[in-house]
Design the sequence.
């Protein structure tokens, strides 16, 4: 009994720490969808690029073979966020800007179809391009933090709290809080929300939608990339890893109602809990499949998520 | 004419494919080239299979690898573990693929655009993980020395090619047949505007599921043939995202709207990618993915329709019988001929003697005589006197905290023209959407001929006799006027209620009635608004509606156009079709309607004879504000 309870508590801690970073991944995707109505299949590849960016930053700036410390992790994550922001801005300017007009103007499926297909193409290029550049060997960001844990002794039970995951969780929470306050309190955030709500009306109010779009896409890519950089120390990665995570992201975002950033945050947390707790019962492969099943069930029975509703006027 | 030509094109292209393959078979000696040829044919067939569903319906499947992988894995699995010869298992795998498509369709078709796309993307990945869990990471077929046909193993690689040619041609003819059939037209209308299709009586869900079932069966067959050729399957090579992408990319590059689009796409991309793979694939593992990704992006940005221009299926269908033929047939059978006149619009409403609307026959065909200077007298025969066609009882609907409709009750009698007015946000369009079944009420009920519509789907309500136009017109923009009106009658045709020849006759006459004959072969997207509104009206009328809902038929029209539209509406009204009209333009409404309901803030505030209702103080107050009631009473 004590053993089961210990396993339960351990899983709870792991899931919470993992949930913070899943939430961050989801928030990046939700930001893009809520402002631009773009369903980005390539979001997983943004995460993958963030991981490689962090790995490169660590490889270039740190000579130590044992890996980097807290500052190194923070620095490389920040760098990968900036890199992904630039990547996002470039991708938006070159690929998405020409099609976003058709996407927004059409309530019906055609517009979505163009951008969905386009981002699928982007996803193929990024993942396979990364395969060409980086090879298929799993890589990891080396840090002693990922192997060290604090041990909490609660009576007969000992709970391990991974230091790297804790750092990840704290950073994710800080970014989440900053993002929400930017969205609600700053001029920029209000512009983004206005564009998201009604692009046409916001144009008349003097908001440059293109600026909103480019910032939303850049920020969305940067946040997801940064999330990737943070988990790159605990999870070995290879160029195809985006595909595994993109479904996690979509599950979280759909759960959160697609357009809500707070919803996406909670959705991401929930996904982590589902994944970790099913891990207690199922084998690794089935654990992978379980999140897809949750995703499908969600789409079938609760496509509008738990935090929002989309009503279309006929 | 067109019908013959298009068959000719298909046959010619098919013969050309066979010819090219035959020539290649005799000239290519290098096994590597033959295998590229075979892969090209197989991926082309997969692309066409994908197109049968996604190209026709506009619902983009990002997960056709599910069906492909199912076919590929099952045929190998059966041979390896159960020693079933592939040739025997193939037909069952095809059937199983159809069943899989049916199940997936029944589950997923209800999902809206992006959710459908996401769900389809997730499906093959579930299969991928499950197969890894089952420990079937790699399945390979042993070489069999004898009975090569049964085991579909040949020493000469060119023998495989004939299987691929057969499946490709089968898939092409099936797609070609669908495009020209009634199903093809229904799918085309679903593609352009699924809501408008549903309110025109088309069972959107069922038709999309049929398309997916066919597409899945064919994709599974292609997958099986691929596996027998490659002889080794892994989850990634059959269920992977790249497999789904491959179907998509050959179709998108070649042209989603054309039957031969995917064939052309495969012909360009597959040899190219195999060549690149052979040249640099050793060093640049993943180059194929980059190539396909780039092809998708290039196609989407610069030629979203693909290389081949889209062909529409509906023209073939309309021109199935020539016009002369129809009239000869009609003249031969005089009884049927007269029946057709009677059935023109409403089988049980016949304009009697003294009516100002009628029909005459001349060299040109049928003319509609209308003379609307004086009000038409309509006599209604053969109608069981069921007074209330449509009854609404205590209807309520909330959107969050907004009470859109509160306790709405009214009755619509046969032959009456009911007007509903009210300011913006009064709940008029919500009410219409509810009468159609687009939105379901929170409480209360709607009955048509005494049947509760609460659990009926949109198309079922349309088939019960509710026709509809929209506030913002929703025609099928890429179709011509004639085609649009045909779609309105497709549900009757599919149910066997009207024959093809009769349909043609009806559509012609609707066009005459609404003065659309001169523009009937023009695409609706390019017409002036007043004509688009007339097309929508025609689409609703052609199906013999018992109740016609007209949602702001005059919105967005200039004064002259509005006058035109009122004239058309009067003509329609003269046939005695029960109509409910929502309108802002008070004058137009007063001319048209026999009874008026005034709505405000989701409630009915007045009901009665038009002139009386508009004089009531509460109506003036709702419309103009409190201050005006005193002026008005003077």
Sequence:
């Amino acid at each position: 009994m004590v053993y089961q309870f210990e396993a339960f508590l351990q899983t709870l801690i792991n899931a919470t720490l993992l949930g913070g970073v899943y939430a961050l991944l989801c928030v990046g995707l939700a930001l893009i969808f809520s402002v631009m109505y773009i369903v980005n299949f390539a979001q997983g590849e943004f995460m993958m690029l963030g991981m490689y960016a962090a790995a490169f930053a660590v490889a270039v700036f740190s000579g130590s073979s044992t890996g980097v410390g807290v500052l190194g992790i923070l620095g490389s994550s920040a760098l990968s966020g900036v890199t992904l922001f630039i990547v996002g801005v470039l991708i938006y300017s070159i690929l998405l800007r020409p099609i976003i007009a058709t996407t927004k103007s059409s309530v019906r499926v055609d517009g979505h179809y163009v951008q969905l297909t386009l981002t699928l193409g982007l996803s193929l290029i990024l993942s396979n391009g990364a395969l060409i550049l980086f090879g298929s060997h799993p890589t990891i960001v080396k840090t002693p933090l990922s192997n060290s844990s604090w041990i909490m002794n609660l009576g007969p039970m000992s709970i391990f709290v991974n230091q790297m995951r804790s750092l990840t969780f704290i950073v994710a929470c800080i970014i989440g809080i900053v993002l929400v306050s930017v969205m609600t309190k700053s001029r920029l955030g209000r512009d983004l929300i206005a564009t998201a709500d009604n692009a046409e009306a916001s144009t008349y109010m003097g908001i440059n939608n293109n600026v909103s779009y480019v910032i939303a896409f850049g920020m969305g890519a940067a946040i997801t990339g940064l999330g990737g950089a943070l988990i790159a120390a605990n999870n070995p990665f290879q160029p195809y890893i985006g595909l595994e995570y993109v479904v996690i992201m979509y599950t979280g975002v759909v759960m959160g109602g697609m357009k809500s950033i707070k919803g996406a945050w909670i959705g991401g947390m929930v996904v982590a809990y589902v994944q970790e707790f099913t891990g207690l019962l199922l084998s690794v492969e089935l654990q992978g499949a379980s999140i897809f099943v949750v995703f499908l069930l969600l789409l079938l029975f609760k496509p509008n998520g738990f935090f929002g509703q989309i009503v279309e006027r006929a | 004419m067109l019908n013959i030509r298009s068959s000719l094109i298909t046959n010619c292209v098919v013969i050309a494919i066979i010819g090219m393959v035959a020539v290649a078979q005799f000239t290519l000696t290098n096994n590597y080239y033959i295998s590229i040829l075979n892969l090209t044919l197989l991926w082309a067939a997969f692309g066409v299979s994908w197109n049968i569903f996604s190209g026709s319906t506009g619902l983009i499947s990002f997960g056709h690898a599910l069906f492909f992988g199912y076919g590929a894995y099952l045929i190998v699995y059966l041979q390896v573990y159960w020693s079933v010869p592939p040739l025997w298992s193939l037909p069952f795998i095809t059937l199983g693929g159809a069943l899989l498509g049916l199940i997936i369709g029944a589950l997923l078709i209800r999902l809206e655009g992006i959710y459908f796309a996401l769900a389809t993307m997730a499906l093959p990945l579930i299969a991928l993980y499950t197969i890894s869990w089952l420990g079937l990471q790699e399945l390979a077929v042993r070489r069999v020395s004898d009975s090569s046909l049964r085991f579909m193993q040949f020493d000469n690689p060119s023998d495989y090619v004939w299987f691929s040619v057969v499946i490709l041609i089968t898939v092409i003819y099936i797609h070609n047949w669908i495009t020209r059939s009634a199903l093809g037209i229904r799918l085309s209308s679903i593609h352009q505007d699924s809501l408008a299709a549903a309110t025109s009586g088309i069972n959107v869900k069922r038709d999309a599921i049929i398309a997916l079932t066919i597409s899945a069966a064919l994709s599974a067959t292609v997958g099986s043939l691929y596996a027998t050729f490659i002889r080794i399957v892994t989850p990634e090579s059959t269920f992977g995202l790249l497999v789904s992408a491959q179907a998509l990319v050959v179709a998108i590059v070649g042209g989603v709207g054309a039957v031969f689009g995917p064939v052309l796409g495969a012909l360009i991309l597959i040899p190219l990618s195999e060549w690149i793979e052979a040249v640099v694939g050793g060093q640049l593992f993943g180059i194929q993915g980059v190539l396909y990704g780039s092809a998708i992006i290039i196609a989407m940005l610069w030629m979203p329709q693909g290389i081949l221009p889209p062909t529409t299926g509906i023209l073939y269908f309309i021109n199935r019988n020539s016009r002369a033929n129809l009239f000869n047939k009609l003249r031969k059978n005089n009884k049927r001929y007269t029946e057709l006149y009677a059935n023109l619009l409403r089988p049980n409403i016949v304009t009697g003697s003294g009516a100002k609307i009628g029909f005459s026959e001349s060299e040109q065909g049928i003319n509609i005589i209308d003379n609307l200077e004086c009000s038409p007298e309509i006599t209604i025969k053969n109608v069981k006197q069921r007074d209330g066609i449509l009854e609404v009882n205590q209807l309520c609907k909330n959107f969050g905290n907004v009470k859109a409709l509160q306790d709405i009750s009214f009755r619509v009698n046969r032959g009456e023209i009911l007007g509903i007015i009210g300011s913006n946000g009064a709940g008029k369009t919500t009410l219409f959407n509810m009468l159609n079944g687009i939105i379901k009420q929170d409480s209360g009920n709607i009955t048509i001929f005494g049947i509760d519509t609460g659990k009926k789907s949109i198309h079922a309500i349309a088939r019960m006799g509710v026709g509809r136009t929209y506030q913002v017109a929703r025609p099928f923009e890429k179709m011509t006027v004639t085609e649009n009106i045909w779609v309105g009658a497709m549900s009757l045709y599919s149910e066997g209620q009207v024959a093809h020849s009769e349909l043609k006759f009806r559509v012609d006459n609707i066009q005459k009635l609404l003065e659309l004959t001169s523009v009937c072969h023009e695409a609706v997207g390019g017409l002036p608004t007043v004509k688009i509104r007339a097309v929508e009206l025609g689409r609703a009328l052609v199906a013999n509606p018992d109740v016609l809902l007209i949602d702001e038929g005059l919105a967005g029209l200039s004064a002259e156009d509005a006058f035109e539209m009122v004239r058309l509406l009067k003509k329609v009204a003269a046939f005695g079709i029960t109509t409910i009209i929502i309108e802002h333009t008070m004058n137009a409404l007063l001319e048209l309607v026999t009874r008026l309901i005034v709505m405000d803030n989701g409630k009915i505030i007045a009901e009665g004879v038009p002139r009386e209702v508009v004089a009531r103080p509460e109506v003036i107050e709702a419309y103009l504000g409190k201050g005006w009631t005193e002026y008005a009473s003077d």
User: Anything to note?
Assistant: Chain B touches chain A through 55 residues (CB under 8 Å). The longest strand of chain B covers residues 388-399. Chain B has a mean pLDDT of 80. The radius of gyration of chain B is 29 Å.
